[in-house]
Structures are given as C-alpha cells and as structure tokens.
Specification:
The chain is an alpha+beta fold. It contains three helices and six strands.
C-alpha cells in the first residue's frame, strides 16, 4: 500500500502509520460487517504478496460490498488477482447471498480491468469524482 508504482492507479498510503490505520479501519469493519480484505501469502515462499478480497470500505462508505486487490509488482501476471476475484465472487454469492458485487478500476489500468472482466464483471459507468470506472456483477439468487 506504500509502493508508489504499485499504487499509481489508486490511493497510496504515504507512511507506515497511515498503512496501519488503514488496515485497522478495515479490521474494525470486519468485526462490524463480517467482510474485510485478506492478506495474500505466496504459498511457495511464505511472503506477503498482496492484500484484497471483499470489503465494505470504511473510508468511502455507501457502495456496499466491493472487490479490491493490491499485489506486489513482482507477482503481477501470475494469476493471483484473477484467482482472488473468482474466489471473492463465489463467496459473495454462496456465503453472503449478495444480489451484486461492485469493483472499481482506474481507466488507465488495463490489467485490473481485464481481471474484472474475466471474473464476469461489466463496466457500468465512469465516476468523475473518483476518476474510476464502476464495475458490477449480478450474482445468482437461490430459487
């Protein structure tokens, strides 16, 4: 969350203190709503390589449960974001029974946009106040 290159399309946390505050805000939200990002650990090395999943953003409320992901540049292109997106969509549908799931991507981030589209999300509209594209996926309802 502090790497300027990795976070160039989103909000970079400028200090370790800010990053800790950000994570603590999400942990507070996990206790309140049951969803917050996960730490992504590479199985073969045990290294933390990312952070993401489902969350209800405590810093920008009102969008409902969203999908987001942030990965170290060294693991880009290895399928981690796509796997996380598929897993998150499944949990949102099967465990949380959500009617839909939102996600955001910067217009100049083709990799993130591809991840969302491969996971079944559709671009809804551009949000100029956020400089982001809103993506959404409708989730199946149980009969």
């Amino acid at each position: 969350m502090g790497d300027a290159d990795v976070m160039r399309h989103t909000h970079r946390q400028p200090s370790l203190r800010a990053r800790r505050r950000h994570v603590a805000g999400h942990e507070w939200q996990r206790r309140r709503t049951g969803v917050a990002p996960w730490t992504i650990i590479e199985k073969s090395t045990g290294r933390i390589v990312g952070w993401g999943g489902l969350y209800d953003d405590p810093f920008d409320p009102g969008w409902g449960v969203e999908l987001a992901y942030f990965f170290a540049a060294g693991v880009w292109g290895r399928g981690y974001a796509s796997a996380l997106a598929r897993l998150s969509v499944g949990i949102a549908a099967e465990r949380l029974h959500l009617p839909h799931l939102n996600a955001f991507a910067h217009p100049d981030n083709p990799g993130s946009r591809r991840v969302l589209e491969k996971a079944g999300f559709s671009e809804q509209r551009y949000l100029p106040q956020m400089d982001r594209l809103l993506y959404r996926i409708g989730l199946p309802r149980e009969a």
